[in-house]
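Structure first, sequence second, as always.
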C-alpha cells in the first residue's frame, strides 16, 4: 500500500465538516449545521442540496452505491446497497441520489429481530438519517448512518434509543447548568471505547469448528505456557501483527476514526486498540466500524480477529472499556474538577449524579453488558465482578467523606469543606486510576465502565448510563429550581447523595470473595451473575418507569428488547452445545479410537514377540482413555437430550434458566473429559489444533 501522509489520509472517505463547508453553499451549510448542532428539522430543499453534493463527492471517490447503514438488534451493523444508477433516455445511465433517499430508506426488514414489535403483515421498517454522524464511503458504497424504526414508530435498533438517551441527558444537564448561570447550546456525552481482541492464524482458525461456529473454543487443554510470565502485556509487537495494525490504522483513519493507542494485552495473542474519544453516537458508529474493519484487515494478513469475550479458557478474555463523560458545546468537561470553588460545586453535583445513577440503576448497567459471551468474563478474576460498584480513589473519597460528616478534609487545606467556598485539589490521574478491579472507576475527568464485553455494541450501556444520569439530574433540578438559598440547598443535596449512596462506593479489590460477601450481604448490592439473572430486571417497574419517563424506550420496546436479549443468550448457547456434540461425535471420539487402536495393536504385537514386554504405558493409557471415551459418550447423550428439552420450556425466561442451570454445566462437564483425553492422546491423532498452536503461532 502506498504510504500516505496521515493528515491528508485522515477522514478522506468521510463527508465531514471540512467537505461540507467546502462543497455546500453557505446557506445550505448553515442550515445543515443547525440540524446537526441543535436538532432542527431539515427541510427538503436543503436535503436535496446535501444529497447532490454527497453523491458528487462519493462518485468522485469511486463510489457506485449508497446504503442506509444501521444497527439492528442483532448487535452487528446492517446495510442494503442500492446503486446510484438511473436510466437516461439515450440508453445510458446517470448517477442519481435525492434528498428523499438521503433522509429515509425502507429496507425490507422482516428478518431482523423485533421481539414481536413488528407484525409480519407490516414487515417493512424504515431508516432515518442521523445527520450528527457523518456519512462515509466503504467498499465503493456511500454509507449513511441511520436510525431504524417500525412504521408505528417503535425503535428496532440500538441507535434510536441511544440518541433519545442523549437528548434526555442534554435536557436535564442544561437545567442544572442554567442554575449555575450557564446557558449552553447542548450537553453531550462522550465516549472513548478501548477495544480488546485476539489475533490468530487463519489456517488454524478454519480447522476449528468451534471457532468458526461460535467464535470461541469449546474444548482445549491448557498448553504448558499461558500468560503467567506476563511477557505479552505491552511486549514488542510481532511483525505480522504490526503489519496488521499499520494497515488497520490506515483504514480507520480514512474513515475518520481516531485510532490512537495500540498494544499487546495480557493474554498471548491478545491486543488492544483505543481511539480518541468522541460524541457517544459517533463513538458507537465508529466502534461498530472498527470491529468490522479489524476483521476484514485481519483476513488480508492471513489472520482472524476474534472479538469473542472468552475465546480461550484459562487465559484472559476480552473486554471493552467505556470511558464516559459529559461536555458542553463549548467543550467544558462536566466531570473535570474546576478552577474555582463555584465550579467545584458544579463538578461535585455532576459527580454525585453519576454515583446516584449507578447505585439506583446497578441492575440496568449490569444487564446492558449481559451476553452469553460476557458471562464468562464477569466475576472470573480477570474482569470486574458482576457486582457494580464505583471507585473514586482515596483523594476524592476523603473529600466526599469530609462533606458528608462536616469534618475537616485532611488535604492541604485542613478545613471543613464548605461548598462554594473552597477549591478542590486537582486530581491527578495517578491518584485516581490505580484500581483495575473496579467495574466503574473515576479516572480524573471521566468514568470508565469496564464491564463491557469486547463484542458488545457500546450503545446499550450508554443508553442506560445516559438515562440513569439524566434521572439523577432531573431530581436535582426539581429541587434546586425551587430553592430559596441555592448554595445551601446544593450543599445538602450533595451531602445527602453521599449519605444515601455510599454503599456503591468501593475502593478495594473487587476480585476477592470478601468483597462479594460484603457487597451482597452487608451493602445489599445486586450480584446478577448471568444474563438469565440480569436481563429480566429490565422489566422491573422502577426501571421501566425511569426509561419511559425520559422517553428513551416505550413499554413495548422494553418488553421486546428483554425478549430479544434472552433469545440471543439461549440461541448462542444452544449453538455452542450443538457444536460440542458435533465435534465429539464426528471428531474427538473417532480420533481417540484411532489412538486406542494403535495402542492395542502395539500391545498385542509386542507381547506376542516377547513375554518380558510389559507395555505399561500402552495399557495404562488405554485403560484411562477407554474409560474417558465412555464418560464422554455418556455426557454427550445427556447434553444432547438437555438441548432437545429446551424446546419444551414455555417461556423464553424458562428457557434461559434451563440454559444457565442445565446446559452450561453439562457443557463444562463434557469439556473436562475431552480435555483430559487430549493430554493422553498422541498429537498426530488429535483432530484440531491445540491451544498452544492457536495462541503461539503468529510471529
Ligand atoms: P487507559 O485507560 O488505558 O489508561 P487513557 O486514560 O489514555 O487510557 O484513555 C482511555 C480512553 O479514554 C481514550 O479513548 C480517551 O480518548 C478516553 N477519554 C479521555 N477523556 C475522555 C472524556 N472526557 N470523555 C470520554 N472519553 C475520554
Ligand atoms: Mg482503560
Amino acid at each position: 500500500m502506498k504510504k500516505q501522509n496521515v493528515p491528508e489520509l485522515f477522514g478522506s472517505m468521510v463527508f465531514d465538516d471540512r467537505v461540507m463547508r467546502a462543497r455546500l453553499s453557505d446557506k445550505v451549510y448553515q442550515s445543515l449545521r443547525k440540524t446537526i448542532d441543535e436538532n432542527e428539522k431539515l427541510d427538503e430543499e436543503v436535503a436535496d442540496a446535501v444529497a447532490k453534493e454527497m453523491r458528487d463527492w462519493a462518485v468522485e471517490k469511486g463510489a457506485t452505491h449508497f446504503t442506509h447503514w444501521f444497527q439492528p438488534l442483532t448487535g452487528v451493523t446492517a446495510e442494503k446497497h442500492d446503486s446510484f444508477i438511473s436510466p437516461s433516455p439515450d440508453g445510458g445511465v446517470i448517477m442519481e441520489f435525492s434528498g428523499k433517499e438521503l433522509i429515509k430508506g425502507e429496507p425490507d426488514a422482516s428478518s431482523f429481530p423485533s421481539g414481536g414489535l413488528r407484525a409480519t403483515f407490516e414487515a417493512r421498517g424504515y431508516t432515518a438519517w442521523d445527520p450528527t454522524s457523518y456519512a462515509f464511503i466503504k467498499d465503493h458504497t456511500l454509507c449513511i448512518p441511520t436510525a431504524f424504526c417500525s412504521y408505528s414508530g417503535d425503535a428496532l435498533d440500538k441507535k434510536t434509543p441511544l440518541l433519545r438517551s442523549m437528548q434526555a441527558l442534554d435536557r436535564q444537564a442544561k437545567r442544572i447548568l442554567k442554575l449555575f448561570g450557564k446557558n449552553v447550546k447542548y450537553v453531550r456525552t462522550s465516549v472513548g471505547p478501548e477495544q480488546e481482541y485476539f489475533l490468530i492464524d487463519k489456517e488454524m482458525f478454519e480447522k476449528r469448528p468451534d471457532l468458526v461456529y461460535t467464535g470461541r473454543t469449546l474444548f482445549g487443554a491448557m498448553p504448558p505456557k499461558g500468560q503467567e510470565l506476563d511477557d505479552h502485556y505491552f511486549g514488542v509487537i510481532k511483525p505480522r501483527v504490526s503489519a496488521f495494525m499499520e494497515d488497520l490504522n490506515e483504514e480507520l483513519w480514512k474513515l475518520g476514526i481516531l485510532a490512537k493507542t495500540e498494544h499487546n494485552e495480557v493474554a498471548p495473542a491478545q491486543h488492544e486498540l483505543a481511539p480518541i474519544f468522541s460524541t457517544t453516537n459517533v463513538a458507537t458508529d465508529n466502534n461498530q466500524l472498527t470491529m468490522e474493519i479489524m476483521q476484514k484487515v485481519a483476513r488480508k494478513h492471513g489472520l482472524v480477529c476474534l472479538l469473542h469475550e472468552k475465546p480461550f479458557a484459562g487465559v484472559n478474555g476480552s473486554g471493552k472499556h467505556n470511558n464516559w463523560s459529559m461536555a458542553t458545546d463549548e467543550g467544558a468537561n462536566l466531570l473535570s474538577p474546576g478552577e474555582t470553588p463555584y465550579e467545584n460545586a458544579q463538578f461535585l453535583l455532576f459527580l454525585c449524579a453519576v454515583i446516584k445513577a449507578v447505585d439506583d440503576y446497578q441492575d440496568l448497567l449490569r444487564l446492558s453488558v449481559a451476553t452469553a459471551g460476557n458471562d464468562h468474563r464477569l466475576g472470573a478474576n480477570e474482569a470486574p465482578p458482576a457486582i457494580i460498584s464505583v471507585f473514586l480513589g482515596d483523594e476524592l473519597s476523603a473529600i466526599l467523606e469530609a462533606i458528608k460528616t462536616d469534618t475537616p478534609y485532611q488535604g492541604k487545606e485542613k478545613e471543613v469543606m464548605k461548598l462554594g467556598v473552597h477549591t478542590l485539589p486537582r486530581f491527578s490521574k495517578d491518584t485516581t486510576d490505580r484500581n483495575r478491579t473496579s467495574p466503574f472507576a473515576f479516572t480524573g475527568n471521566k468514568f470508565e465502565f469496564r464491564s463491557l464485553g469486547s463484542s458488545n455494541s457500546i450503545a446499550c450501556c450508554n443508553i442506560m448510563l445516559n438515562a440513569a444520569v439524566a434521572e439523577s439530574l432531573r431530581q436535582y433540578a426539581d429541587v434546586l429550581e425551587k430553592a430559596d438559598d441555592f448554595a445551601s440547598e446544593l450543599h445538602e443535596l450533595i451531602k445527602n447523595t453521599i449519605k444515601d449512596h455510599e454503599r456503591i462506593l468501593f475502593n478495594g479489590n473487587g476480585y476477592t470473595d470478601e468483597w462479594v460477601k460484603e457487597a451482597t450481604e452487608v451493602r445489599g448490592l445486586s450480584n446478577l451473575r448471568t444474563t438469565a439473572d440480569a436481563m429480566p430486571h429490565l422489566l422491573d417497574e422502577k426501571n421501566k418507569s425511569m426509561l419511559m419517563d425520559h422517553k428513551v424506550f416505550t413499554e413495548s420496546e422494553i418488553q421486546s428488547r428483554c425478549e430479544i436479549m434472552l433469545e440471543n443468550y439461549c440461541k448462542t448457547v444452544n449453538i455452542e452445545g450443538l457444536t460440542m456434540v458435533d465435534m465429539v461425535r464426528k471428531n474427538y471420539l473417532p480420533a481417540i479410537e484411532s489412538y486406542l487402536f494403535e495402542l492395542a495393536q502395539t500391545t498385542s504385537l509386542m507381547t506376542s514377540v516377547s513375554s518380558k514386554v510389559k507395555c505399561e504405558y500402552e495399557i495404562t493409557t488405554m485403560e484411562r482413555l477407554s474409560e474417558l471415551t465412555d464418560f464422554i459418550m455418556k455426557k454427550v447423550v445427556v447434553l444432547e437430550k438437555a438441548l432437545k428439552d429446551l424446546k419444551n420450556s414455555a417461556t423464553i425466561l424458562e428457557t434461559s434458566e434451563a440454559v444457565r442451570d442445565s446446559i452450561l454445566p453439562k457443557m463444562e462437564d463434557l469439556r473436562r473429559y475431552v480435555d483430559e483425553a487430549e493430554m493422553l492422546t498422541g498429537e498426530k491423532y488429535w483432530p484440531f489444533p491445540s491451544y498452544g498452536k492457536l495462541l503461539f503461532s503468529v510471529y
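Margin note: Residues 118 and 524 are 39 Å apart (CA to CA).
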